[in-house]
Each structure stands twice: as C-alpha cells, then as structure tokens.
Design brief:
Elements: H1 2-23, H2 33-45
C-alpha cells in the first residue's frame, strides 16, 4: 500500500512537472527538473 501511494505521488509529480514545463518552458530548465521533483516529493512526505 505504501509502495502504491509512493508510485501515485511520483506519477503525480512527474505529470505536474511536465505540465508546468510545457506551460512555462523557460521557467524550469531541464537541469533543474530532478531538484524540482525532489522538492515536490519532500513536500508530499511532510
């Protein structure tokens, strides 16, 4: 169940990052995407 929840949150963060990147392609460089994902994951964990 925990793994399922983790996969859902991970998929959600990826989809969110992709949508944000498509809306604002210049605001989030591809090099910062891993950092962006980790920030989302940390906010989900807390």
């Amino acid at each position: 169940m925990v793994l399922h929840c983790f996969c859902l949150s991970l998929f959600g963060s990826v989809a969110y990052a992709v949508s944000v990147a498509s809306l604002f392609p210049s605001s989030i460089p591809l090099g910062e995407l891993p950092y962006f994902h980790s920030q989302i994951f940390m906010s989900h964990k807390s």
